[in-house]
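Minimal example, chain plus 1-deoxynojirimycin.
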Amino acid sequence: MLKSSQFGKDFLWGVAIAAQQNEGAYNIDGRGLSIWDAFSRRQGKIKGGHKPYDACDFYYRYKDDLLLTKALGFNVFRFSIAWSRILPDGTGKVNKEGINFYNKVIDECLKLGLKPFVTLYHWDLPYALEKEGGWTSHRMTRWFTRYATVCAEAFGDRVKDWIILNEPMGFTSLGYMLGKHAPGKTGMSNFLPAIHNAVLCQADGGRVIRDLVPKAYIGTTFSCSEVIPHTDRDLDVQAAKRMDILLNRLFIEPALGRGYPKDDFKFLEKLEIYTKAWKFTDRMRFNFDFIGLQNYFPVTIRHNSIMPIIQASEVKAATRKVPHTAMGWEINGESFYRIIKKFWHYGSVKEIIISENGACFKDEVVDGVVNDTARIAYFEEYLKAMHKAKHEGVNIKGYMAWTLMDNFEWSEGYKARFGLIHVDFETQLRTIKNSGYWFRDFLQK
Ligand code: NOJ
C-alpha cells in the first residue's frame, strides 16, 4: 500500500478550490458581476438553470472550511481570487472589502499552518471587461497586469506561491470557441485572439509577481490529456497529433520560448496576425519556477473529416466500454503517468505540481455516510501512477486534489460532485465523504 511518506517530507499535499465555484456572496461587499454570473442568466446554458450566486457560501464559511482542510491533514490550500471582488469594474477603483476578505482567508491559512497557494485567474472575468471584448481584446494584457499588481501588492507579503492562470486552454476553447462556458462566444475569430492574449497574460503576470513579490514561487497551470489514436491508421494518428497540439502543447510551448507549435498544425499559422510576424515570441516566454499540471483523463481520437479544421473527434470512454466517471471521463492511471513524463521531457520544465486531479461520481448521503469507494479507487490508482513518475526522477513537488467540497461545476451546475466533502446545497451542510477520510489516513502514513 502506497504511503504519503514515500513522496518525501517536504511534499506539498493540498486541496484546490476556485472563487466562482465556492464563494457565493456574488453581490456582497462591493463585488462586481463576473462573466459566469451573467452567463448563468442565459436560458439553457447551465444544467438545471443553476446559478453560481451562493455556491458553497465559502465567503461566510471559510473558517470552518479551512478547519476541515486542516483536519483532513492537508498542508496546502489552493484558492483563487475573484478579480471582480478586487476591481469590481475590472480596472479602476480597488474594492477594499474584497482585499479584506482575502486577507482574512490568507491569515486564517497561515494561522492553521496551511500554505496559501493563490490562483490569479480561475475563469471569472469581470463582466465589465467582457463588455469591452474580454479575452479577445488587445487591452487584456493591460487590465490583467493592473489586477496582478494590485494582488501582488496587497498579498505578496504573506503569499509566496502564485499560479497565474488556471487552464488557459479550458477557458479559451470552452468560452471563446465552443460557447459552452462563459462568456459563450464561438468561432475562430474569437478563439485565436483569446489564445494569444492568454499566452501574453500568462507571461506578463509572471513578470509582475516576480518584480513585486520577494522570494515568490511562480507557476501557471495547464490542462492536459494523453491523446491516444483510436487505431494505428495514419489518418487517426495524424488526427491524434493535431488534438495533442491543441490539448497539450498550445500554451506551454510559447511559455518555454518555443513559440506556438504551428509547424505541426498549419492552421495555427493564423495566430501570426496577432503576433505580427512572431515578434512576440520573447514576450510570450516566462521562466516559471514550476508548472501546474491538471489531469483527469486521456482521450481517444479518430479522424473525422466533418469536424472543421481539427478533422478529429473523440471516441468516448462509454462507447469503448472502459471504466469512466460520472462525467464520462476515462479512468486510467497509466495515462496520468505517461502525460506527466511527456511534460517532463521538455527538459526545460524545472518543477511540476499536480495542481488538480480528482473524479466526479454520483454521491449520496446515506445515514450520514457517503461511501464513495469509486473515488477512493481513483485516487489510489492516480497517486500510484504519480509515485511511479516521481520515483523515476520527475521533479514533482506537490499534489492538489480537486476538490475540497462539491461546488459549482460550471455548465454542469451543482449536480456534478467532485468533492472530498459532500455539500447539501439547500442547507450548506458538509459531510466528509469516505474518500476524505481515506485521504486523512493516507496523509498520516
Ligand atoms: C478544471 C477546472 O480548473 C476546475 O475549475 C473544474 O471544476 C475541474 N477541472 C473539474 O472539471
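The mean pLDDT is 97. The radius of gyration is 21 Å.
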